[in-house]
Amino acid sequence: MKPKIVLMWPLQRSYSPYLSILYLSKILENEGFENSVVMSNLLFGREMLKLPEDVKKDPEGSLNKIVKTVQKMEPDILIIDSWREHIPFIAEFVRKFKPANENTKIILGGHHPTFIPNDIMELLPEVDYLVRGEIEISALELVKFLVKGGDLNKVKGISYRKNEKIFHTGDRAPIDNLDDLPIIDFENAIGNRKPERIDIRTQSGCWGSCNFCSLPSIFGKPRFHSVRYVINQIKHLKDLYDFDYLHLIDENFISNINRSKDVSNEIRKNFPDLEWGGMFRIDIARKDILEVLSNNNFVNACVGVESNIPKVLRFLNKTPIEKKYSDNIIDKIKFMSEKFRVLELGMIVGTPVETEKDLNSTIKFVEEIKRNCKNLEILRIAIGKLVIYPGTYFWNLYVKGKLKMIREDDNFEGMFEKKYEHIIWATPWRYFIENRNFNSQKEYINFIKNIINICSFDGGVN
To answer: Among 24, 59, 158, 273, which residue is least crowded by beta carbons within 10 Å?
Structure first.
C-alpha cells in the first residue's frame, strides 16, 4: 500500500525560494507517489510573498486552520520545506500537529536544517528527519527508505535520531544537470492553485561570496537550465494558467551574460506579449544586457545594491573594487530607470564600520537616486538592517565571538516570533550587530522614516 504523502510550505511574508517543494512534488509523482501540496499562504488567498490579511488579524486561528487542513489528509509522511524566516511557524505547527498524529513521519528540509541540524533537532523533537541542502533527491530517497526499508546511512544529506542520539549522513552534492528536474506547476496544491504572481527558476546558485549571504553555501555555484527547458516550463504554465507577468527568482539572472541574452530573446520570440522581471546584482549590470532585457519585455528589475559606501562594501565582501563599484551605481540606476518600468533596489545599513557621516551620505545617495529615476512608474528602495543568518561568514564570526549581537529593546509583536525571540538563529531579525548608529528597532525605523520623508518615495523596509 502506497503512503499518503503531504508536502507543505510554511506561511511567509517575503521572498523565499519556495519552488523546491513544487519540484519535489513532481519528482515524487513521477516515481509513482501521489502527493498533495499545502502552500500555506494559498489557503487564504493568492499572494505568496506577503501574509494575507486574515493571517495578520488572527495568526493563531490561521495556524489551526493549516493544522486541520493537513490532519484531514491523514498523511503517513509529511514533508515540510522552509527558508530563513520559518522556524517559529514550523515549531508551533509541529507542536500542534504531532500529538494527534504520532504515526506521521515528519521530514523537515531547508535553510536551518542545512546549517544547524543539531540545534533544530534539539528544538523540535517532533521532527523525525532533516534533509540538508537541496531537498529534491534526498527527500525522494528518504521516502523510498520509509516505504521499502534498506540502509538509511546510504541516503545522503539527511539527519536523524537513533537511541536518543543524532546522526548525520554524508552531504549530497547539488544537482548537476538542472534539466533533470521536472516541469512544475501548482496542480497538486490544495486551495488556490495559482498565486497572484507566477514565479519560475532558470538557474540555481551564485558565484558571489558576500559575507551576509548563505545562498552559495546551500545552492553552490551557478547551474543553469537550458533555454529549451525554460521555454517549455513557461509554455506549460501558460497552458494551465492565465497570467501576463512572470517573475524569475534566480539568485542572479545575469550571472552568465550570453546565456541571459539567449533566454531573453527566446522569451520574447515565444511569448511576445508576456512581461517579466527578475533579480540581479548591480555590479554586473552592463548596459548591453540591460538593453537586451528592455527590448524583450523585461519590465521589473530587482537589483542588489547593498551600499554606496566603499568601506561598507568591503565589510560585506560585496566586491574587490569598492570605489569603482560605488562610483558607477548612479549611472547604472539612471540607465535602468530609462529602460524598465519598475525598479526595486536592495540596500543594507547597520554595519559596525558605518559612522553618522556615512548614514548622511546614504541619505544623499537616495536623494540622488530619486532625482535620476523620474521616468519610472514605481521606485522601491528596501533599506534593510544587516541580519546575520546561519550559513554565512558573519554567522561564523558571531559563533567565534568576533561579532557582538544585541537584541532589540522594543516591544516586538510578530506572528509567532515572541516565543522564540531569545533564540538568535530562530529570530535573527530581532538582533543587531553592535554598531555606532542604531541598536534598536526604533532607531532603525526612525532612520528609514527620515529617508522616506526627505525623498518622498514609496520606500520599503526589509
So the answer is: 273
pLDDT tens, 85-101?
999 999 999 999 999 99
Name the residue ranges covered by the structural domains of the chain. Answer: 5-168, 198-455
- DSSP state letters, 151-196: -GGGSTTEEEEETTEEEEPPPPPPPS-GGGSPP--STTBSS-SS-S
- Position 204: which residue type? S
CB count, 10 Å around CB of 95? 13
Topology classification of domain 5-168: Rossmann fold (3.40.50)
DSSP state of 427: S
- Cell numbers for 269, please give them: 520570440
- Grid cell at residue 383: 533599506
Q: Residue written as cell 502506497?
A: 2
Task: Report residue 107 as a C-alpha cell.
Answer: 521530514
Q: How far is CA 142 from CA 7, 108, 118, 128, in A?
A: 14, 11, 19, 11
Q: What is the CATH number of domain 198-455?
A: 3.80.30.20
This prediction has a pTM of 0.94
Place of cell 511567509: 12
Alpha-carbon span 453 to 459, nearest angstrom: 10
User: Are 5-168 and 198-455 the same fold in CATH?
Assistant: no
Give the separation between CA 1 and CA 149, rounded to whole angstroms.
Answer: 14
Span 203-231, pLDDT tens digits? 999 988 999 999 888 888 999 999 999 99
- Closest among 134, 164, 163, 138 to 153, alpha carbons compared: 138
Quote the CA–CA distance of 197 and 245 in Å, as a whole number.
Answer: 7
